[in-house]
# Entry
Amino acid sequence: MARLTRFAPSPTGPLHLGHAYAALIAAERGDRFLVRIEDIDRTRCKPAYAAQIFDDLHWLGLTWDLPVMRQSQRQAAYDAALDQLSAQGLTYCCTCTRADIRAALSAPQEGVDGPIYPGTCRDAHHDSGAVRLNMAKAAKLLPDLSFTETGTHPARYKINPAQLIQSSGDVILSRRDIGVAYHLAVVVDDAAQGITEVTRGQDLLDATPLQVALQHLLALPTPIYHHHALIRDDQGKRLAKRDDARALAKYRAEGATPADIRRMIGL
Ligand code: GLU
Ligand code: ZN
# Structure
């Protein structure tokens, strides 16, 4: 089977060395390589950054199959997935603010999306608000799951659905201001693009069991995962997109070649 991989940047800033690494790994591992612009958060994403991303990727010598998927144009697909989950009785609306959630938690337990939601709105029957997944209910429907990881910690990872109640809890699937949340969008879009191997930074390994559970609830295939090491700066600090000092554009302006970039990130 042809291997389909993708690079899925959010256009919230210039690409830096860490992104170059992620894109090159994805392109190298795929027979076909796709790009997806993760621009659901319109307050943080800018078209100019997407244009700069394409320019930087071309400069690195990468080409990809068209069309580029843009999450900002995918709301109908996200709504269909939300309907599918709600038809199974697995969703509810939540009107809590961040402050409400903090106030309801005496000893917040950190999950993949921040503090585990205390469940305040679970039986409140609100008809609008953020949409959450009822994880306890979902866990009852889910069989034991697993996924294959081929990255820095290769293994066949087993997922005990009951454990997702503690590690993820009632995650947000759709926000009030944005019609979808990351975990749902990524699962829907990887399936729509036919991705067979998800390559991405190791920081997302912890989110994978939740995403595999969503795939199962939506009857979508589970791809292979390849979580790669994160490129860090000299102090060992993870490179963030806002860290413009490491922007590829800056190295380009200083006369670096694509080969120099590959050397700097150890490829
Ligand atoms: N858009 C995410 C990022 O920029 C990547 C999501 C993924 O690869 O699953 O970090
Ligand atoms: Zn709530």
